[in-house]
Write a structure and sequence with these properties.
- Component of the ER membrane protein complex (EMC).
- It comes from Chaetomium globosum (strain ATCC 6205 / CBS 148.51 / DSM 1962 / NBRC 6347 / NRRL 1970) (Soil fungus).
- This is ER membrane protein complex subunit 2.
- By secondary structure, this protein is mainly alpha-helical.
- The chain folds into three domains: 66 residues, no CATH class; 99 residues, Tetratricopeptide repeat domain (Serine Threonine Protein Phosphatase 5, Tetratricopeptide repeat); 135 residues, no CATH class.
- Helices cover 67% and strands 0% of the residues.
- The chain contains 16 helices and no strands.
- The protein is globular and about 65 Å long.
- The N and C termini lie far apart (48 Å).
């Protein structure tokens, strides 16, 4: 069954993206082939729906992923006919199409030059600024991508998506303190909503769709990676590990049955217990003090029990436990298996 066209195609599997792109011919046939940008046209054709244009965008992304460039261009032409060549969002979508069709770095450089020219004329063109960042990153120019993001955030400091992307770029360069700082900005900007959290909702790089528990878990992961990085300065290990414990604990407090939060809590508590009691000592700054050994053991037991429950129910496809990422369930199973083999030895 093909996914609904209104669903974002970014996180779809290749098979689902193919199924979505195959809906394009039928959608184009059922939609007007010519669309006027004049507001008077609604007097004769009726009011248009904004969902229609989002559907065109989603179909373009899916068609580009599956190599159907012709259908992608047909969808793009209708967006241009409706909104015009100078529309910022249309410019970004056209750039995405050109990036997908580019053959080699030379063609990508030409697209990058087009982005730079557009930004020279209008440096407030946010969609093009974000496409330039994405293109620089895809070309492996990470420092340039980070610099472009910093420029964007100077202009739009409340853009949570840009902060998240900057954090990920810093992480890919091994700049853990900077990655943590950027992700903390995401947490500040994220809506503090106590809505029902789906335990199967996978973390992604679109913070506006993320529950705060997912951002806390991501921060815990960054803190753990910083703590276990080689060449860590003395005194920072305990600080990072204490923060990781707090972040993972907060994550599962906000969202019960959240696999990634329990996995992180299990990982960090296991590491602390293996390090021995010497690693768990009162800190000079109480803000970064680790819990005592007994508390860490209890957290480890809690995470173990919950992960075992999630793995068991997920493997049985029990109702209410479906939809977890197979990769994350497999990682949890392996982590629990390591504990079991250690006990046997």
């Amino acid at each position: 069954m093909a996914p609904p066209i209104l669903n974002s195609p970014i996180q779809l599997s290749p098979a689902a993206a193919l199924a979505l792109s195959q809906q394009t011919p039928a959608f184009l046939r059922s939609s007007p082939s010519t669309v006027s940008s004049s507001p008077l046209s609604t007097l004769f054709s009726g009011p248009e729906k904004s969902e229609q244009w989002l559907q065109y965008e989603n179909l373009i992304v899916s068609c580009l992923r599956t190599g159907d460039d012709q259908a992608a261009h047909q969808c793009l032409q209708r967006l241009v006919a409706r909104f015009g060549d100078d529309n910022e969002r249309v410019q970004a979508i056209r750039g995405l199409v050109k990036e997908a069709e580019a053959q080699g770095n030379g063609a990508l450089e030409e697209v990058l030059n087009e982005y730079n020219q557009i930004l020279n004329e209008n440096d407030a063109n946010i969609p093009i600024a974000k496409r330039r960042v994405a293109l620089l990153r895809s070309m492996g120019r990470l420092p340039d991508a980070a610099s472009a993001l910093v420029q964007l955030l100077d202009f739009s400091p409340t853009d949570a998506e840009a902060w998240s992307e900057l954090s990920d770029i810093y992480l890919s360069q091994g700049l853990y303190p900077q990655a943590i700082y950027a992700m903390e900005e995401v947490l500040v900007l994220a809506p503090n909503a106590w809505n029902v959290c789906s335990p199967t909702k996978a973390p992604n790089l679109s913070p506006m769709l993320m529950h705060p528990s997912q951002i806390h878990a991501r921060l815990g992961e960054l803190q753990y990676m910083a703590a276990t990085a080689p060449g860590l300065a003395n005194g920072l290990y305990q600080k990072y590990m204490a923060e990781a414990v707090k972040r993972f604990s907060r994550s599962i407090e906000l969202c019960d049955d959240y696999l990634r939060g329990y996995y992180g809590l299990k990982l960090v508590s296991k590491r602390l217990l293996n390090d021995g009691t010497k690693a768990i000592r009162p800190a000079d700054d109480s803000e970064f003090a680790l819990p005592d050994t007994n508390t860490i053991e209890q957290l480890n037991e809690l995470a173990t029990a919950k992960l075992s429950e999630i793995v068991r129910h997920s493997a049985a496809s029990d109702r209410g436990w479906r939809g977890y990422s197979e990769a994350e369930v497999a990682a949890a199973r392996d982590l629990l298996a390591d504990d079991a083999s250690a006990i046997k030895r």
